[in-house]
Amino acid sequence: MAITVDQIKTSLNQCMDPEVPLSIVEMGLVYGIDISESNDVNIKMTMTTQGCPLHQTIVQDVARYVKKVPGVNNVKVDIVWDPPWTMDKMSEAAKAKLKSFSKSGAPAPIDYETALPQGIGSLVQQEDGSMVLANEHNQGFMVNQAIVDFWKSCNGKRKITELVDVFAQTTGLQRSQVEKEVIQLIGQLRDGGLITIPTPDSPNVEFRK
After folding, report:
1. Rounded distance, CA 69 to CA 133, Å?
2. Can you list the domains of the chain with their CATH numbers?
3. What confidence score (pLDDT) does residue 117 get?
4. What angle do CA 198, 86, 34 make, to 5 degrees?
């Protein structure tokens, strides 16, 4: 049974970019899909940034989604940096979606190397024992203990890499298993107004004395 590029694309449409709620196809990250006569699939793709901490996770996800197409044999994912990705590569629909996600102006992308997330808002215990994190507008989000612990660990002093370590310890999972969850969690908490990520100030003013 011959496999088509469309089948592969349809499956990859469910593979989400970890940083924005769009698929890697909508984001324009897939540069090429090659299918051999023996149904081996070679994916050529890029990332939005070279320093993406989820490099490995995305490659594994892509391979997993390609393998969901019946008849696929081997999957090879090549990451290329040429041509570099720009927002122009996104589909029109994706650009429109992105605009609607960020009605108040696009949220600044999180710099995973330097960001120091700081938990804000308050924790409210409901009468039935369930926990809710409330932001300053009193919007509440149902959370579990793991998320509460994570929110508390965002103390404005830990980098995201350290938060991944903390989350891995509290959940007892491997670092590689929780990386993606932590990044998504930070995005969701930030969107919900439950953590703030201060932007680093302009170059240190102290040096100008």
Report:
1. 40
2. 5-101 (3.30.300.130), 118-196 (1.10.10.1150)
3. 92
4. 130
- pTM, to two decimals: 0.52
Phi, then psi, of 55 in degrees rounded to 5: -40, -60
Q: Residue 208: what are its φ and ψ, rounded to 5°?
A: -90, 0
Within 10 Å of residue 190's Cβ, how many Cβ atoms? 19
Strands 75-79 and 41-45: parallel
Phi-psi region of 169 (alpha: psi -120 to 50; beta: other; left: phi over 0): alpha
One-letter amino acid of 162? E
What's the CA gap between 8 and 138, in Å, rounded?
43
Task: Write the CA distances from 127 to 112, 121, 144, 157, integer angstroms.
Answer: 37, 19, 15, 33
Backbone CA torsion sign across 115, 116, 122, 127: positive
So what's the pLDDT on residue 202? 45
Q: Per the structure block, which two tokens stand in for 63?
A: 């391979």
Of 40, 13, 39, residue with least CA distance to 25: 13
Task: Split the chain (209 residues) into runs of 10 and give each run's mean pLDDT.
Answer: 93 80 88 96 89 75 93 95 89 80 58 85 82 81 81 92 88 82 84 81 46
Instruction: Output the six-digit token pair for 132.
Output: 């809710």
pLDDT at 37 (0 to 100): 94
